[in-house]
Amino acid sequence: MTQATDIRRVAPLHTALTLAAHGVPSLPLRAGKVPFGNCRTCAKNACGGRPNMKTPGPCQCTAPCHAWAAATTNPHVLNSPQWAAVWRHAAAVAYHPGGAGLTVVDLDNAEAIAWARASLPATRTVPTTRGEHWLYRGAMQSANAVRPGVDVKSSMQYARWLGPGTGTMTALPDVVRALTAKEPATVRPVAVTVPAPVGGGECPHRTPTYLDRGIAMAEQRITEAREAVHATVYRTFLAVLSTHGRCGCLTDAHTARLFTAAQAKGESVRHCTDAWTNALTTLGLSHV
User: Fold this and answer.
1) Would 261 disulfide with which of 109, 222, 229, 276, CB 3.0-4.6 Å?
2) How far apart are CA 74 and CA 70, in angstroms?
3) Closest to 111 (Cα-Cα) out of 151, 153, 146, 149
4) Residue 273 and residue 269: Cα distance in Å, rounded?
5) How far is CA 132 from CA 91, 113, 127, 180, in A?
6) CA nearest neighbour of 229 among 271, 192, 188, 201
7) Separation of alpha carbons 219 and 223, rounded Å
8) Which of 243, 235, 273, 239 is nearest to 255 (CA)?
9) How far is Cα 116 from Cα 123, in angstroms, rounded to an integer?
10) What gap in Å lies between CA 58 and CA 79, rounded to an integer?
């Protein structure tokens, strides 16, 4: 090994080991700022990839495979013989922001930087070739092109290491989280036909406070669901109908509010309609 080759290998490896010592999962990049290809065993993802690809770290082959998922803080892996040949050809080092509990707002040009300065809380910044990286404490979903010239890199994504940057890193703000939020689909209100109140008379739920509070609580329950969204939507519809479905006080506007909350969590109109229909059937409220 020539001295020049040794220097090229040691410099990126030293950076990766330094990052690992500070709890930042890192990985080598080849020329072009892209990860090395998978090894022969994992070529074309023949191994199936890491389970769900949700956490960084090497797969069973112990080679730096699967892009961001190869990032690791284990110095023994970084120094392993399997990685030695890769480090000899490494052009740079990347890291997994989400694995370090960070989010990078990647600003690709002057216009994007101007937008960030006007719209985002000040935080640590790192100069890049064409723009800046703004670093925040906290991980979130990654997304590309959230605005012209703006990418969000955090979970299941990698960012090139360009130095520690300057400024005080601040907590991930809601305005950055909102950049990856999906716009809710337009809801077409679904008419709901339910039996008239038993015995006639005034509906006991027709007070605006009682009904609106119930709908608001149902919306909140759906919005706060972090998993099992389908089941949560169905159970919420079931709860609303069990309380208000037999007296006929629900209107199209109430239904639309619930459907909008569900669609904001990724549910389709069809799924919402099916869940509502199933809830009606379960309670014996559906008409043939």
Assistant:
1) 222
2) 11
3) 149
4) 6
5) 20, 7, 5, 19
6) 271
7) 6
8) 273
9) 11
10) 13
Kindly give the pairing relationship between strand 124-127 and strand 143-147. Answer: unpaired
d(CA 22, CA 15): 11
Q: Which two tokens stand for residue 247?
A: 């007296």
Q: Tokens 């990418």 identify what position?
A: 151
Beta bridge partners of 92: 29
Q: Do 162 and 126 meet the contact criterion of CB atoms below 8 Å apart? A: yes
Give the length of the chain: 288
Q: What is the DSSP letter of 127?
A: E
**Rounded CA gap, 284 and 224, in Å?**
28
Q: Are strands 102-107 and 124-127 parallel, antiparallel or unpaired?
A: unpaired
Scan for tokens 């703000």, then name that residue: 173
Angle 84-25-163 from CA coordinates, rounded to 5°: 90
The amino acid at 56:
P
Angle made by CA atoms 4, 7, 11, in degrees to the nearest 5? 150
Q: What is the pLDDT along the chain (288 residues), one digit of tens a residue?
A: 444 444 344 689 999 999 999 999 999 999 888 998 888 778 777 776 654 555 666 666 777 888 888 899 999 999 998 898 889 889 999 999 999 999 999 999 999 999 999 999 999 999 999 999 999 999 998 999 889 999 999 998 999 999 999 999 999 998 998 888 755 444 454 444 444 434 344 555 556 667 777 888 888 888 888 777 888 888 888 888 877 777 777 788 888 889 988 888 888 888 888 888 888 887 777 653
CA distance 153 to 82: 28
Quote the tokens at residue 47: 């191994």
Tokens (6 digits) for 11: 């410099």
Structure-block tokens of residue 14? 């030293």
